Amino acid sequence: MTNLTMFSLEGKTALVTGANTGLGQGICLAYAKAGANVIGVARRSCQETADKIAAFGGSFKEIIADLSDTSVIPKIAEEADKAFGRVDILVNNAGIIKRCDAADVTEEDWDAVININEKMVFFLCQTFAKKWLADQKGGKIINIASMLSYQGGIRVPAYTSSKSAIIGLTRGLANEWARHNINVNAIAPGYMETNNTQNLRSDEQRSEEILSRIPAGRWGTPEDIAGAAIFLASDAAAYVHGFTLAVDGGWLAR
Ligand code: NAD
Fold first, then answer.
1. What is the pTM (predicted TM-score) of this model?
2. For the chain, which has fewer Cβ within 10 Å, the N-terminal or C-terminal residue?
């Protein structure tokens, strides 16, 4: 019989950025249900996430931090250590998107997207991996990529640059850290019903174009990435390194 305990996160601690809404909230709930202690990092209160986890008796603490500037990292690392002890799983989920014709993108908007979606991801990976390299007990990193890690997208040049970088970064870090039992992987969500796609979904024409191209015939939900997120955080993924797993209703298969 297959040993399903390899998928359990019992006794592990996971830190998830962007935990107050959307996919981040979905991942927090999934991890708590799989037995992990969960730390949610977000700009705003994660009360809704906390309440949903408390409802089934899960364990959750929040850290409020603005992830647009790397100066917050030492505070996050310190508070995370105090929350439940060693962090075993890092999910870099927080991200922003700014829609604008490439010809009109300002340097300010470019930097805002790259800082959160790319620079912060690297330095959070570095911060936790340094601890894991020191204690040699391994760890799991899951970065949230996008369909625009593979495709150009329309009117989102900084976003597509940052998400394309995530796949490269995930591979590069895996090459360095795999031998230390640190698994660095990514999930590329398809088109999911969250704030991130609110504008797309309220544009009738774009919404219809997108929906008609999704083989599954529907937008994804935060629950849809739970399985992939648990798998990559669990012992079951011990030999999976540097891979980006699409959870996209078949979008990339078209
Ligand atoms: P969302 O807008 O609901 O979530 C974004 C999260 O990032 C929020 O929790 C927000 O608080 C956090 N965040 C943004 N700026 C921050 C800052 N300065 N400091 C701290 N936290 C900050 O949308 P979502 O769809 O849940 O997005 C989650 C991730 O999934 C993002 O990286 C996004 O690019 C990615 N993604 C989403 C889709 C989709 O279709 N929804 C598809 C592919 C990838």
1. 0.98
2. N
